[in-house]
Amino acid sequence: MPGRTRIRPQGVDLSGRVGGPGAPVQEPWHAVSLRKYSRSFLITLRNQSATFSVPIMPTQEHDVLAELFRWRPAFAADLVSAAGVDLPDVRGASHCSESFTDLKTSEYTGDGAVLLNLDSGRLGVVVEIQRQPDEEKPWTWPLYIATLRARERCPVILLVVAPKRSVATWCARTIETGHPGHTLTPLVLQPDHVPPLTDPKDFVADPLMGVLSAMYHGDGPQGMEVLQAASSGTDLIADADRPLARRYVDCVLAVLPQAARHALEALMMTDSEFYSDTFRNAEAHGRAEAVVMFLQARGLTLTEAQKERISGCRDVTQLHTWIVRAATVEAADELFG
């Protein structure tokens, strides 16, 4: 962006290591596989006169988007500029408390808050992730700004990230506070503010913007180009840092619309060596956990040796056989017969 310096450290780390204590904990990689197979397990086991499903807590689009600003606080400056605000050079950025609570009032907590160190002084950014209209927000957003402004003694901007264009339009409405001349028009990130990244190298250079590019454009006119770049970009990231690549894939899949998510998964299974290898291991891990959980749910006792044999198996065909048997065996020993 002209007129300001981007803060973009080399080797951006999405794993949370830079964040230190309190950094986000990622969903286990195998949970994606286990979630995918829980439905097929249910169908299989119903055919065996039994019913069992594995409860999985899905990765939330809202939480993933909020975490982007904790992983790299300066990302807020990139988006504020993308939304049309001309910022001076940014010298640094730090995450601060997103609690906007006065001890004498009810508790109010936003999704994120960032302090930018500019040439002209500090600037606070309140970050809100809005997935649907919420009539409480026109009342609480002015409070967030006023509280952070009073606490940090600096100007404050409200930045709203809304994945859906219709919700973004709702968020951009001017809020009348009642005081003459005192209105608030939220700064809302729109799909037009985020470029569709179609070059894998762009995903490597800025993984966080890659997540938003996939979210806003993964099902648009350039959707397949964006998804292909995300797939190839993941392989490039994996060459340097496989845990980071896994984290990146989790984030992209979490924010994509359903149809685009399925398309990316299919694309990566065929074109991405990193993803296909990792997914096969995750698939086996997920099926192994399902076998153990199902047997235990039926009240059957497993020895440690039996648990290790199941968890150590990477043959998905064998694991599928064990899943079917687990519906009818009377003792754990019969599983391996």
Radius of gyration: 23 Å
- What are the secondary-structure elements, in order, as H or E? HHHEEEHEHEEEHHHHHHHH
* CATH structural architecture of the domain at 61-193: 3-Layer(aba) Sandwich
Query: What is the fold-level CATH name, i.e. the topology of the domain at 61-193?
Result: Trna Endonuclease, Chain: A, domain 1
The main β sheet shows up as:
5 strands, mixed
Q: What percentage of the residues does DSSP assign to strands (E)?
A: 5-15%
Please report the total strand number as a whole number: 7
Helix content: 40-55%
* Rounded mean pLDDT score: 79
Give the spatial strand order of the biggest sheet.
1-2-3-4-7
List the total number of helices: 13
Helix and strand content put the structural class at: alpha/beta
- Alpha-carbon distance between the two ends: 65 Å
- As residue ranges, the low-confidence spans are 1-59
Q: What is the CATH first-level class name of the domain at 61-193? A: Alpha Beta
Strand-helix topology:
Elements: H1 29-47, H2 61-71, H3 75-82, E1 90-95, E2 112-118, E3 121-129, H4 137-152, E4 156-161, H5 165-171, E5 175-176, E6 183-184, E7 187-189, H6 200-205, H7 207-217, H8 223-240, H9 242-255, H10 258-271, H11 273-297, H12 304-312, H13 316-325
Parallel strand pairs: 3-4, 4-7
Antiparallel strand pairs: 1-2, 2-3, 5-6
Helix pairs in contact: 1-11, 7-8, 7-9, 8-9, 8-10, 10-11, 11-12, 11-13
